[in-house]
Amino acid sequence: MATQTKTLKSFGLKSLIKVNNAIAARYEDIPKVTSSTSKSKAVSLVEDALSSSGEKIIIVLNPDYKKRGSSAKRSLALYRNGMIVSEYADAIEKAGFDRAMASADLRWDTKLGTIRLV
After folding, report:
1. Which sign does the torsion angle of CA 52, 54, 55, 59 carry?
2. Distance separating alpha carbons of residues 50 and 10, to the nearest angstrom
């Protein structure tokens, strides 16, 4: 939880709003973070939303890790810093790949140190 709090505190208010909106779009009863919300309150609200939804945030650590011509290149291109895991799964599906591939990608890329989930 301390890592998650530290990570969220490093986000700007706009990024916190994007994360909150992505979670709120998928789960009911998630309080909204707005531009008038203080940053400390926004961090607290996003932490609560992540906790109650069970979602994780993707932090891109090495965006340049792309083997030429590999399937890693296409999946890494879909990662956005601060996106939630279900958004990534949606992006994989929209790109025409099996949704189960998202879980495999996340496990593999976390193991390689390309991304971190918080």
Report:
1. positive
2. 16
CB 57 within 8 A of CB 19: yes
Name residues whose C-beta falls within 8 Å of residue 84's C-beta, 6 or more positions apart in sequence. Answer: 19, 22, 23, 55, 56, 57, 58
Q: Report, as an integer, the average pLDDT of 15-43.
A: 93
pTM: 0.84
Q: How far is CA 15 from CA 9, 11, 79, 96, in A?
A: 10, 6, 15, 27
Q: Compute the average pLDDT of residues 5-17.
A: 91
With pLDDT > 90 as the criterion, what percentage of the chain qualifies? Answer: 62
